[in-house]
Each structure stands twice: as structure tokens, then as C-alpha cells.
Amino acid sequence: MILDPNGIAASAGDLDDDRAEASDAKSATKPRKSGTDEPVAMLVFRAGGDEPKAVPLSLIARLEEIDARTIEQSDGRYVLQYRGQLMPLVSFRGGKPPRTEGRQPILVFAERERRMGLLVDEIVDIVDQQLKVQLGGEAQGTLGSAVIAGKATDVIDAGYYLRQAHANWFAAPPQSEKSGEAGGSCWSTIRRSSVTS
Asked: What is the spatial distance between Cα 3 and Cα 1, in angstroms, rounded to a whole number?
């Protein structure tokens, strides 16, 4: 199963017309700043335990649910042949390996030609609400905790997992990539911003 989160949100009326046209990471929008009164679409999921986790939906290129038998290993890491490329798969907090049978949910993050799949146990919901991180994160890969959909929820640091897949994810693109790209990337916002408590 393949889900286009931006398309789902647009059909539900949660995104404006410009964002509704976004179907891949090249047209993904910048995450909204934390601490504003403006609601933020958050993807809630479970990974590495029963506690809910969340990430801004605008950072996710696609939600995938793949046949676990298509996951391979290369150079000591899990990969998936995805859209003509090998996409590295990252376990949540270095946890359990991917499933070996059945369906495996994956959150796909993408920018330019880079892609990364975050292995999760279950995709729970998409929630539109104000994001206010109330406690700072102690564990690697967590920005902090917020109340989302009435539950204490870990807000993940997507940048941490992106660097697990590609150590140079946030490096400046080669000059050839810069020339055809207008504006900044949504990931540059993550690098520059910090979540306030």
C-alpha cells in the first residue's frame, strides 16, 4: 500500500492549493514553526514500543507499506529497491530489524535524489493541532514530548534519522543541483530552527 500524506491532507481540506499539488519531496513544504497558535499536521506512529511518536507530516514524502520480503541487506545495512534506487532503511533508535514476512510500514523522507525509509511498527493517525513541545528530549532522535491527540507523545528529530541513512544529508548540494532549484529546502529549516519548550 502506498499513501501520499500530502494528498490525503489536501483532500481533507487541511492544505492550501499550492501544497495540494505537492506529490513528492521536491515540492514538500517547510515545517511550521513550533509554539505558534497555528495547527500543524502531525503523523502519529508507533515504533520501538507502545508509546506514540509523531513527526510533522510536511516532512514526509510518502507513507509506504511494503512486502517485508523485498527488504534486502547491502554493506551491513537494510535497503529497499525503491523507484530505481537503493533506499537505506533505518530502524527507530537502532531497534529491532525489519519484519521478515507480512507488511512493513515505512515513512519515506526525500530531498533531491536522496531518500530514506524509517521503519515503524504501525502508522496510527494524522492529527491536526497546535504543536507545543513541553519537555525536552533526553533520548537521541527525540526533540521532546508533547500532548498530541490527548496522549503524551515523543516528537522525533527527523534530522537524526536522516543522518543515520546519509551522513551528508544536510551538506550543500553539488553546484549542478543548486542551479535548477528555486528557494531553500524544507530541511534547511530543520537545521536552523530549534524546538522551544
From this structure: 7
